[in-house]
Structures
1.
Amino acid sequence: ELKVEQNPLFLSMQEGKNYTIYCNYSTTSDRLYWYRQDPGKSLESLFVLLSNGAVKQEGRLMASLDTKARLSTLHITAAVHDLSATYFCAVDGYGGATNKLIFGTGTLLAVQP
Amino acid sequence: ETGVTQSPTHLIKTRGQQVTLRCSSQSGHNTVSWYQQALGQGPQFIFQYYREEENGRGNFPPRFSGLQFPNYSSELNVNALELDDSALYLCASSSGPGANVLTFGAGSRLTVL
């Protein structure tokens, strides 16, 4: 059974600091997704990583993928309060590129002023 | 271009009742997937519809069923509601089962009393 684990589950950080969220998955997968979810809201797509060594950046967020280690990271640079949200990683869970996603448990990020 | 729309946004049912949730896919998208997100958890894949046929199913019992219509909109039906069915139900559409972009709707929040 494919498992996707994130850590930490909860992250409280100060504005201006850097931190990394880790996403480990248990079997091979063609794609790795990162989503943001604000309380009571739907999922907003942040990144789709398609190959080993892929790196994508958008603003203060940068995601990378190491398929050999089955690890993705989401790095936050100089955090601001607006980044407070829950972040999920997800992989294609049912073989190949099917977009039937298995999500991690989520990381609740709270950025304190 | 309209996004994914879901209805109703909120509803309350009692144990044993049945519920139907609706989803209109984004323009140009022919594939619809449904996810269940319990409070504090990551979304869980329920099933996917493509060309009006079920195209993969997660670990959900048969009382969870669905339909896709010729205009690619979709319904999720849940029979014999249980308390644990209380969750946010998310619909996601894509331009095909292998597409690497999923667009999520705002969700339908179901409370079972």
Note: The interface with chain A takes residues 31, 33, 35, 40-45, 48, 56, 58, 90, 92, 94, 97-107 of chain B (CB under 8 Å).
2.
Amino acid sequence: AQSVSQHNHHVILSEAASLELGCNYSYGGTVNLFWYVQYPGQHLQLLLKYFSGDPLVKGIKGFEAEFIKSKFSFNLRKPSVQWSDTAEYFCAVNADNYGQNFVFGPGTRLSVLP
Amino acid sequence: KAGVTQTPRYLIKTRGQQVTLSCSPISGHRSVSWYQQTPGQGLQFLFEYFSETQRNKGNFPGRFSGRQFSNSRSEMNVSTLELGDSALYLCASSLLASGSSYEQYFGPGTRLTVT
């Protein structure tokens, strides 16, 4: 069965610090990868996605992620975080191109201090 | 374009009762998936419907069921509610052709509390 792990449960950073959130998945076949964000009181929103092609993908709000197939990883990065980035971040994997069974990681809570 | 809508937003039920939650996908989206989100288990996939057919099912008991209508709107039903069913139930839709995968767009969820 597929599974997704996220390295950190809670990350605390100061504004302007750089961010890297780890995500690893277990599945040997072709995968589609996603990062979603859930701001306080809001619903899940897509940050970025990887289906194929360039393994470095750029998303909204200055976020980017790199797919490293050999490491089964899809880490999320941002060079300089803002207070408004405070949210919970979820990595998700879809390893079944026929359906929409997304497997989500447990989430990483990011707190950015002003 | 309107987003995914879910009704009701909040619901309180008693153990043993049943509940029906509704989801209207983004116009044109034909795939609707349901997830349960809890602090302990995170986001867990319940099932997916495409063209009124259940295509995928997660590891939940048969008390959890769903259906999709011809206009792609979907409902999920939970019978004989248990305290552990208290959760945020999320619906997600995607623009999906057979054999393809697209990102999912999530609704705000229905917060179900079972007492």
Note: The first strand of chain A starts at residue 3 and ends at 6.
